[in-house]
Design a protein that fits this description.
mainly alpha; two-stranded antiparallel sheet; two-stranded antiparallel ribbon
């Protein structure tokens, strides 16, 4: 097999380009995923170094499971942002530990679906997760988070508007890498602006960076409420977290399939068939569960890195693995993590406002591009119940269900998703068939940019 196609310039073995070019390509992929990956821990309160470490480890694990064939990078999932806020709908102060356990179980759902995909195929399994279910669920994920973004913006709307303006400008007028990394550029621009005009932001940055070491372990072993180790767990909160968060995986699994189709289209190889969705789901699920157990966010394949593949025309998965190693190395620098932790709340608010809105927009896109027929009463009823329950319960407070000596709190997202799946399975008139509409099947992506 040739290392480069004369007609297209596509490189199939990056190691033939030489060490320097190969390193630059790896750094480029790290740069592309970087802003979005570190943004999730900055918003949720998870550890930045741990996040980078398990993004790298998760990517390497994914490549091992998928026979080193798929050029995909695994970074922090935006879809699970709600996992770190939804379970507090009842007013309880629930530590991040329980959220992490819920995300870990969500990763195990990937493994269960991987088995079903292996034995029954994607077309049969996806009948139970059609766009009429996943679309409204995705819409509600974004809508339920918007309030927290506004609260952060309220700390300094001028700083927040700078972040929003940069995201919009990069997406509309940006070219090449500028269009691929709008979130990173928005965070940097707004951050610098805040440090210039706000003395408190400058003081916070100086304090955090000066207190941090240059070198340190990325994994938190102490009983800090981030990892699940050394914890005295409350079973009521634990079950609440699992029941609330696990259903989110039903939307992210659809996102995963869309990403695999998008990468296949970019690279001109059918990764859905080889190594197969059962392997890619297994790799993604294992990476997510492993990360969550140690207090890092859920992992997901990144649209940003797919954009870099299209831009560079270097499709060798070795370059992605090189970027993963760079992420691991960077995770051992606490001073870098301190810079992220000192990010002004208004900067996070401005960027988050765009991201949460984009998540909801992805749900709308999922419904539209799959041409969901809303003249059918079943579809109207399913969408109505999902959105009514998800938003209604979120505003009124979680549903409390006593079970023996413990109390399980069901958030709006959990109730809406479960009711939607059940109604779709029971009501007659299913009309969605996976694999028929490629545009619709690939229309789910929670990345920081639109495709």
């Amino acid at each position: 097999m040739s290392n480069q196609s004369p007609a297209t310039g596509i490189v199939t073995d990056a190691r033939t380009l030489g060490t320097s070019k190969m390193l630059i390509l790896g750094i480029q992929h790290l740069f592309a995923m970087f802003g979005a990956t570190v943004l999730v821990p900055a918003i949720t309160g998870l550890n930045v170094s741990t996040t980078l470490f398990f993004a790298g480890i998760g990517t390497l694990l994914f490549h091992l499971v998928t026979k080193r064939k798929v050029p995909a990078f695994l970074g922090s999932s935006f879809a699970f942002l709600g996992a770190y806020g939804l379970i507090t709908a009842s007013g309880q102060e629930i530590p991040l530990t329980y959220s992490s356990i819920g995300v870990a179980v969500a990763g195990l759902v990937y493994l269960a679906l991987a088995l079903l995909f292996k034995f029954f195929g994607a077309r049969q399994v996806m009948r139970y997760f059609p766009p009429i279910v996943t679309g409204p669920v995705i819409i509600c994920i974004g809508m339920s988070l918007a309030g927290s973004a506004i609260n952060n913006c309220n700390t300094n709307w001028l700083v927040a508007i700078v972040a929003i303006a940069v995201v919009v400008a990069c997406n509309i007028w940006g070219k090449g890498m500028i269009k691929i990394i709008p979130i990173l550029l928005a965070v940097i621009s707004s951050y610098v602006f805040a440090v210039i005009i706000d003395a408190d932001a400058r003081a916070m940055l100086v304090q955090k960076v000066s207190e941090a070491d240059w070198i340190g372990l990325p994994v938190i072993w102490e009983n800090t409420g981030l990892s699940i180790f050394n914890q005295n767990l409350d079973w009521g909160m634990l079950i609440t977290a699992v029941v609330t968060i696990a259903p989110i995986s039903l939307a992210t699994i659809v996102e995963h399939i869309g990403d695999m189709c998008a990468i296949s289209s970019t690279v001109h190889k059918n990764f859905v068939a080889d190594p197969g969705l059962h392997r890619t789901l297994l790799g993604d699920g294992l990476a997510t569960t492993l990360a969550a157990l140690f207090g890092a966010p859920a992992n997901t394949t990144y649209g940003e890195n797919t954009g870099v593949l299209a831009l560079s025309k270097v499709y060798d998965p070795f370059v992605i693995r090189l970027a993963a190693v760079f992420a691991i190395v960077l995770s051992f620098c606490p001073k870098f993590a301190a810079i992220i932790v000192a990010t002004p709340a208004a900067t996070m608010g401005g960027v988050s406002l765009v991201l949460y809105g984009m998540i909801s927009s992805v749900g709308v896109r999922n419904v539209v591009e799959n041409q969901v027929d809303f003249t059918k009463s079943r579809n109207v009823l399913i969408a109505a119940m999902i959105m009514g329950l998800a938003i209604g319960v979120a505003y009124s407070g979680a549903i409390q269900i006593p079970v023996g000596s413990i109390t399980i709190s069901l958030s709006g997202m959990a109730v809406g998703a479960l009711v939607g799946i059940l109604m779709n399975a029971i009501l007659p008139g299913k009309d969605y068939e996976f694999g028929v509409n490629e545009l619709g099947d690939t229309s789910v992506n929670f990345g920081s940019r639109t495709k």
